[in-house]
Write a structure and sequence with these properties.
The chain is of the alpha/beta class. The protein contains 17 helices and eleven strands.
């Protein structure tokens, strides 16, 4: 295959995070720790996973980071915005995700990362507030101020280019409105302070206008509407989202494909979470939880296809709950009760108790998305990057496309995209003998 023309990686890569709370600072600390050889970047495909090239007998299995011209960890610099003025070290201490013995050796580097003033309106995140907020009230002026922040941070850090990954809190649930239908309508909405435009949309707009790839790690409406999708295509800027796939939904996208492949029926799937970090506090507001609920509940329908397998999943009852519980902090606990049935309709049950760490699971996603989106931009891939669905609860897809939630299919597609971008043949997993017979 012909290898696409991909601009080489050079210089520094600025990773911008709207929101410098638990997820963003855990990501920053992990990168800094790996650079000092104090820890390994577990959970990161870009750093630890291999990719098979050609048939198995060729035994070509390089690391993804050696196979592709990705930015290295030493090339990453950080920037971000937050409503609180704490630097990244202070914010990481307050988030209480990492132990002091892991965080203290990174103090000098993290203290240098101070948040820019946020474009923020408490109307959209009712359980959050802080003093480090921009004074502009007009949304177009706020967007322009964010664009200026991006340009200034590139100069300040000496970075060659940037990516932006939303690590902020979940905003209230919003539907598409007239202002989201076209670029012109959206920009008019910015000038008129349209209530349908939340702060995360300002960051997405600013990033795309500055040629900066953008990923949304939360479930709120951010860049997943026609206006910004058109703008991303027009500007040749990769975008992806939404809502990082970390705890309970990660387990669903692993387990549900297994039940389906064995044709095991499901009568009910009840999920509840307890979480005590800032995200849990924000989600204690019903309007913010609505955004998360929509994101989490759509996964099973997509994987199980109840419209096709009516006898197995047509009457599935699916319920999701998230409960704010301060004593647990970032150590989220997800309980799942799954009522399944098999041969002759006999009932069985599965109980899952996932004691996870929310930011520990999310941090490598931030890293991978930053590096893959930067690579996609250099490969000339603008607009929605469906091949990055692997990382999201609610994958962003082009109009008319159906999102894929099966994690194994998502992973297969991601790796095949990387193979094709590097000029290698996609893998089909047919045996070599079968390939030869099929071609004879």
């Amino acid at each position: 295959m012909t290898k696409p023309d991909i601009a080489p990686h050079k210089g520094k890569l600025l990773v911008l995070t709207p929101g410098m709370g638990a997820v963003a600072t855990t990501f920053m600390a992990g990168v800094a720790s790996a650079r000092k050889n104090l820890s390994k970047p577990f959970g990161s495909l870009t750093q630890l996973q291999t990719i098979r090239l050609g048939s198995r007998s060729e035994n070509r299995n390089p690391l993804i980071k050696d196979f592709l011209d990705l930015a290295g960890l030493d090339d990453i610099v950080f920037g971000g915005w937050d409503v609180k003025a704490d630097n990244a070290f202070e914010a990481a201490k307050n988030a209480d995700v990492l132990k002091p013995q892991d965080l203290d050796p990174l103090k000098d580097e993290l203290e240098k990362v101070t948040p820019m003033k946020a474009a923020f309106n408490q109307r959209y995140v009712k359980k959050l507030d802080g003093p480090n907020v921009k004074e502009q009230t007009n949304k177009m002026e706020l967007a322009e101020a964010l664009r200026e922040d991006i340009r200034n941070k590139l100069k300040e850090t000496g970075a060659d280019r940037a990516v932006m990954v939303w690590c902020g809190s979940t905003e209230v649930h919003l539907h598409h409105s007239d202002c989201h239908r076209s670029i012109e309508a959206f920009e008019e909405g910015l000038r008129n302070n349209d209530d349908s435009i939340a702060p995360s949309q300002l960051y997405a707009y600013a990033a795309i206008k500055e040629g900066v790839p953008y990923a949304n790690g939360a479930p709120n409406l951010s860049a997943d509407f026609p206006a910004l999708e058109q703008l991303a295509e027009q500007e040749g800027v990769p975008i992806a989202g939404k809502d990082f796939k970390t705890g309970q939904t990660l387990m669903k996208t692993i387990l549900a494909p297994g039940f389906k492949t064995r044709m095991l029926g499901i009568r009910g799937w009840f999920s509840t979470n307890i979480l005590g970090n800032r995200d849990g506090e924000v989600l204690d507001d019903p309007e913010s939880f609505k955004s998360k609920e929509v994101s989490k509940t759509g996964v099973l329908d997509s994987i199980l296809q109840p419209e096709i397998y009516k006898d197995l999943y047509g009457d599935l009852y699916h319920k999701v709950r998230i409960n704010y519980y301060p004593p647990r902090g970032d150590e989220k606990e997800g309980w799942d009760n799954i009522d399944i049935f098999g041969w002759m309709g006999y009932d069985m049950q599965i109980k899952v108790d996932f004691l996870c760490r929310d930011s520990i699971l999310a941090a490598p996603i931030v890293l991978d998305l930053a590096l893959f989106l930067d690579f996609a931009k250099r490969a000339g891939k603008g607009g929605i990057q469906e091949w990055l669905s692997f990382y999201f609860k609610s994958p962003q897809v082009k109009a008319g496309h159906i999102p894929e939630h099966d994690i194994f299919i998502q992973h297969f597609r991601l790796k095949n995209t990387l193979r094709v971008l590097a000029g290698e043949k996609p893998v089909t997993h047919l045996s070599e003998n079968f390939e030869e017979e099929a071609l004879s």
